[in-house]
Structures are given as structure tokens and as C-alpha cells.
Design brief:
With about 400 residues, the protein is of the alpha/beta class. Among the domains are: about 25 residues, no CATH class; about 230 residues, no CATH class. It has 15 helices and 11 strands. The chain has a 5-stranded parallel beta sheet, sandwiched between helices. It has a two-stranded antiparallel ribbon with strand order 1-2. A two-stranded antiparallel ribbon has the order 5-6. A hairpin with a 7-residue loop joins strand 5 and strand 6. Helix 5 runs parallel beside helix 6. The chain is globular. The relative contact order is 0.15.
Length: about 400
């Protein structure tokens, strides 16, 4: 009979912990438990090396990667609080993430880009999976095009202005400038190494323009300093990066959370006349649609679709329903990746991690079974239930 080593380790861990609590003093229990093998962690902090060997275990994101990648968004608010409380950022290596990483490692980048769509019920871990994949892109020195939570553009726009270059379109100047800062933070180092330049000349006004051959960083800084041009500069920047990828000058990883918002029929973007603006008339959408086409190479596209992106109005988590006919046909063909609730091994490892951080205490097997039942092994629900423990 073949045994799952990790299941055996988990069982022995729980039995050992119970025995320690029963027979040892408090100080002895802490000392003995520290000496037990930490089965729920892996020492491999480079996601480029993550395989099924590291599956179901936590890995620690180095501080420099955390500050570079997630300062501008990309992690749930509750998770950010946990990071601050525990003084470390740890991701659980999920099977869905390992699957995507294996595809990215074995892709023929000379072919048109592959598109991957993560789907699953709210709270199952799609955002954290995208954050893990984002770390992989950074570790493998790819240019990152990361939109942390696309619905923010259409639900809480900070400013709406009529486009001066595209009739019938609106710009989101402040949101666009904020995204450029996020892009610059994530990619400043790799852009400095690659020394990419513009392939076209751009005229922004009678006095301001960007000459052909100018560094891309100059284009980015202009969008940050001159907010009114930020939306058009994002369109120009993504076009330049696509051409650079096609020419083999760089590799690019596009990651968008809540991608199905681009195909919704309801937004909170309004014109001066109080008319609602659909996503296809927001200039930032142009860049997102161009990036997720399959007409370029030396890159990959990983997006998530989520009921929460459209206010939980849909009855299914499947991409076909969430994307709608237009969105589905835009991405087709793509690889669907299901992000499920925790397995039993993942659930026990998560609880052992919380015990290790001294967040959860005095939680015996009966309490664990109750938490498993109440949360349905949903990551978000489990964090909520464990918050007051």
C-alpha cells in the first residue's frame, strides 16, 4: 500500500502536538514544538523553482520582492493585515498555481501568447495565486503588466474626463497615473537593464511630445507628472512593449485580477451629463484588450474571473458565464485553471501555520473539524472564523 508522506507527517504532527499539550508543561511544550519538523513550510523562496514537491506548503516572500511587487496592490486587505501582524508574507503553494508555473516554464515563447484564466468561487484564493505567479514573473526577470483589481477603475474612479484624442471615450487620469507608478515600481530595475526605447514619436500637445528613441522610462515619468496624458501614455506604453516582445527584446507577463469587469453592462463611471459609461468606452480598456490578444509572442497572459468583480450578480463561477459572449470570444482559445477550496492537507497546514504564528491556540481536533465544516475549507471564510481566536 502506498502512503502519502505529507498526510502521514500531518497526522504525526497533530498527534505529537496533542501529546505535548497533555503531558508537558507550558515551557516544555514550546521548546519541544519548536524542535518538531516544520512540515507546513518550504525553504524554497524562489517561485521559479516551485514544483509539486513544494505543493501544499507555505513559502516566504523575501522583503525586497514584497515591497516591489505588492506596494501598489495585488493582495486582499485582510491578507495585508495578516502580513503586518505576522511580520512576514507567506503564500500557500496551491496545486492550481503549480500547474500554471509548470505551463509557463515549458512554453514555447516563439509562438503566440498563451492565455490562462483562473476561476473559482469567491474566497477560494485566485488573488493569492495571481500574486504567486506575479512573483514568478519578477524572479524570472520578465516585464510585469499587472492590474491588481480591475473593478476598482469602474466602481471607484477618482476622476473622469472626456478624452481629447478619442471621440466618445473617457479617461481616468488619476487612476491611470497611479497605475503608472505601480508599473514603474515593479519594473524599474528590469527596464534599466534592458534600456528599451520608443519606436514611434508621440505628440501630446503643442508643447509636449516624446521623440522616437526616447527611453520608456521617460514616457512613464511623463504620464506620472502630467496626469492628463496618463491614459493615452498607458496605451502607447503597452503598444511599445508588445512590439519589443515581438522583436525578442524582452519577455512580458500580463496579470489581471477581475478581468470579467471589462465586459460588464454596469459601471459607476459617468460623464458630465450623468450618462453611464460602459467599459468599452473607457480608454484604459483599450490597453487591457490589446494586451490580452494573441497577436504577440515572448509572453503570457494570466487573468482571473470572479463573481465579485461584477458584484456577485452571476449564478456560476465558470468563465463562459462570467466573461459573456464577447469576453469569451476575445480570449478564446485559453486554458481554464480551477482554483478550488482547500484540500484536507492544505486546511491542516494553514491551521498549523496559524498555530505557529501564535494566532490560534488551544485548538484541538474537535475544534479543527468544526472550523473545517463552518468554513467549507474556503480560505477567506477560514480567515474570518480564525480572526477572533
Amino acid at each position: 500500500m502506498a502512503f502519502n508522506t505529507l498526510k502521514v507527517e500531518n497526522f504525526l504532527r497533530r498527534v505529537s502536538a496533542a501529546s505535548i499539550k497533555k503531558y508537558a508543561t507550558a515551557s516544555e511544550a514550546v521548546q519541544i514544538e519548536e524542535e518538531l519538523p516544520v512540515h507546513f513550510r518550504t525553504a524554497e523562496s524562489n517561485p521559479a523553482n516551485h514544483t509539486t514537491q513544494h505543493q501544499d506548503r507555505f513559502y516566504t516572500v523575501p522583503n525586497d520582492a514584497y515591497k516591489t511587487l505588492y506596494t501598489g496592490g495585488g493582495l486582499p486587505k485582510e491578507f495585508m493585515k495578516q502580513v503586518k501582524t505576522f511580520n512576514e508574507c507567506c503564500f500557500l503553494t496551491r496545486s492550481s498555481t503549480v500547474e500554471v508555473l509548470s505551463y509557463l516554464r515549458n512554453t514555447n515563447y516563439n509562438k503566440p501568447v498563451n492565455r490562462y484564466v483562473l476561476y473559482g468561487s469567491p474566497g477560494s484564493g485566485k488573488t493569492i495565486s495571481l500574486a504567486h505567479i506575479l512573483h514568478y514573473g519578477w524572479a524570472t526577470q520578465q516585464i510585469l503588466i499587472h492590474i491588481p483589481w480591475a473593478p476598482n477603475w469602474f466602481r471607484h474612479p477618482k476622476e473622469v474626463a472626456n478624452s481629447t484624442t478619442r471621440e466618445g471615450y473617457v479617461d481616468l487620469p488619476i487612476d491611470a497615473a497611479a497605475w503608472l507608478i505601480h508599473f514603474k515600481t515593479q519594473n524599474a530595475k528590469i527596464l534599466e537593464q534592458l534600456k528599451l526605447t520608443t519606436d514611434k514619436e508621440y505628440t501630446w500637445s503643442l508643447r509636449e511630445s516624446t521623440s522616437r528613441g526616447a527611453p520608456l522610462m521617460e514616457l512613464i515619468d511623463l504620464g506620472i507628472n502630467r496626469v492628463r496624458y496618463a491614459s493615452e501614455i498607458i496605451i502607447a506604453l503597452t503598444s511599445e512593449l508588445k512590439q519589443a516582445s515581438i522583436a525578442g527584446k524582452c519577455k512580458m507577463l500580463v496579470i489581471i485580477d477581475g478581468y470579467n469587469i471589462f465586459f460588464t453592462d454596469r459601471t459607476r463611471v459617468f460623464t458630465d451629463t450623468k450618462a453611464m459609461v460602459l467599459p468599452d468606452k473607457v480608454s484604459l480598456t483599450i490597453a487591457a484588450m490589446e494586451l490580452t490578444k494573441y497577436d504577440w509572442c515572448n509572453g503570457a497572459v494570466v487573468v482571473s474571473v470572479d463573481q465579485l468583480a461584477v458584484g456577485g450578480q452571476k449564478e456560476s463561477d465558470l468563465p463562459r458565464l462570467l466573461l459573456g459572449k464577447v469576453g469569451f470570444e476575445h480570449l478564446d482559445p485559453f486554458m481554464p485553471i480551477s482554483v478550488n477550496h482547500y484540500t484536507d492537507i492544505e486546511f491542516y497546514n494553514v491551521m498549523d501555520y496559524l498555530k505557529d504564528r501564535r494566532w490560534v491556540r488551544d485548538c484541538d481536533e474537535e475544534a479543527l473539524q468544526e472550523l473545517k465544516l463552518l468554513s467549507d475549507k474556503n480560505g477567506f471564510k477560514l480567515r474570518k472564523l480564525c480572526a477572533p481566536l
